[in-house]
Amino acid sequence: MTHILIGVWFALGRLPFGLYRVASTALSALLALVLFVFARERRMVALTNLSLCFPETSVTQRLLWTVKHIYFYLRTFLDRAWLWSGNAATVRDRVCIENLDALVALKGGPPTIFLAPHFLGLDAAWSRLCLEVDMVTMYSNQKNPVLNDLILQGRSKFGDQLLLSRQQGVRPLLTAMKKGRPLYYLPDMDFGERDSVFVTFFGVQAATVTAVARLSKMLQAQVVPVTTVYRNGRYHIRIHQALPDFPMDDDVQSTQAMNHHIETWVKDNIPQYLWLHKRFKTRPAGESRIY
């Protein structure tokens, strides 16, 4: 059954752009309404996150953001069909790097960490960047082996990319970066207390990994944020200036500064940030559960 669903999914992704856009938009909108009504647990996670991060907004506004978020989540999921089965020309046409010169300028410089917060277009950004540079990244294994293989194959489609599971540890990652590969790193998920510190995210204590601070200090690497926006059928990637005065002497201060930067980008694109993730699941000692 999994193989059949993947076949239908990829067939949709091979439709001509205009037809695909109409079909995927309609399907995403329909499913978003269905999931908003019936996927109660995930709906409540998103609404809880939004209420914690934007307590000054109305309930109506947070409900609207949640519906939009589920829609963008579904449509970016569908778009992985053409990202992972299409050719380079398709990806170049539908995923635009707004300032490609900034990427070119990084080549030959110090080690680079591409800081990629969890905007929903992060896979589109990865695939498009793979057409320009060979990178290294880390991934979490999926429970479904068919889906796990599909993701790895899709993310390895272009260039000579190095994907490391979290179980492989940091040593091969360091080796790859020392040889010149940029690290594409997603810094803003709750992985528990291990290798994390509690710093605020929109004023709420959030367990946040210190890997960006530690790696940038260890390798004297520049941290270059990469954000992605979906707009009118296409993705737009922005390569930002390297974070100034980073890392700091203290890893906690560096990690807090990183979160503050992410907050500014989220405010510009609220519905397309990953609100379905239990970002505040791990709590400091003595605090009650949120979800």
UniProtKB/TrEMBL annotation:
**Residues passing through the membrane, by range:** 20-39
The chain's coiled-coil residues are none
**Which GO terms fall under molecular function for this chain's record?**
acyltransferase activity
- Entry keywords, A to Z: Acyltransferase, Cell inner membrane, Cell membrane, Membrane, Transferase, Transmembrane, Transmembrane helix
Using the UniProt record, give the first listed, main subcellular location.
membrane
Top-level taxon? Bacteria
Flavoprotein: is it a keyword of this entry? Answer: no
Q: What is this protein called?
A: Lysophospholipid acyltransferase family protein
May I have one GO cellular component term? plasma membrane
Name the species this protein comes from: Limnobacter thiooxidans
Q: Where does the record place it?
A: Cell inner membrane
**GO BP annotations listed:** glycolipid biosynthetic process
Entry annotated with the keyword Manganese: no
A Pfam family of this chain:
Lip_A_acyltrans
